[in-house]
């Protein structure tokens, strides 16, 4: 078992462009779409700009958690966003934790791919598979929110 790893999951949605826009430029609106996210506050920079620092507050397994992330990349053409955790609860177990979101939009069928690149602090730390379930719940909640409007 290694200390570094990569996990990914994919799911189909109908509102791919909206989903990408939310994570790339309007993450502070997520708390209105899903109970998993308590808030996303701008710490430094501007929403929608690479290098900006965001404070995420979220619920997982009945606990309120927090991370401070830097926006590493926003690619409008590829509809991809990358966040790197700089501080917060995830760094109790991981030296490095990077989240990538990619939306492949082709007609009515859109595919969201989430991936996590990480390095554990030691061998006793489990792979962060519970985060895959977490982001899938977030994705479905956003989809439901937009389809019900």
Automatic annotation (TrEMBL):
InterPro entries: Bet_v_I/MLP (IPR000916), MLP-like_ligand-binding (IPR051761), START-like_dom_sf (IPR023393)
UniProt xrefs under PANTHER family: MLP-LIKE PROTEIN 423 (PTHR31907)
Domain of life: Eukaryota
SUPFAM superfamilies: Bet v1-like (SSF55961)
Organism whose genome encodes this protein: Heracleum sosnowskyi
Name of the protein this chain belongs to: Kirola
Segments forming domain Bet v I/Major latex protein: 2-149
UniProt lineage: Eukaryota, Viridiplantae, Streptophyta, Embryophyta, Tracheophyta
One GO biological process term: defense response
């Amino acid at each position: 078992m290694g200390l570094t790893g990569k996990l990914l999951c994919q799911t189909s949605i109908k509102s791919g462009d909206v989903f990408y826009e939310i994570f790339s430029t309007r993450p502070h609106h997520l708390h209105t779409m899903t109970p998993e996210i308590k808030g996303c506050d701008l710490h430094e920079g501007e929403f929608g700009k690479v290098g900006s620092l965001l404070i995420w507050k979220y619920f997982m397994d009945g606990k309120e958690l927090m991370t401070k992330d830097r926006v590493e990349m926003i690619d409008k053409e590829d509809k991809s966003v990358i966040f790197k955790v700089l501080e917060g609860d995830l760094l109790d177990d991981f030296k490095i934790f990077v989240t990538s979101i990619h939306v492949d939009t082709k007609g009515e069928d859109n595919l969201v791919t989430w991936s996590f690149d990480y390095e554990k602090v030691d061998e006793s730390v489990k792979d962060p598979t519970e985060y895959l379930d977490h982001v899938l719940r977030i994705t479905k909640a956003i989809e439901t929110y937009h389809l019900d409007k």
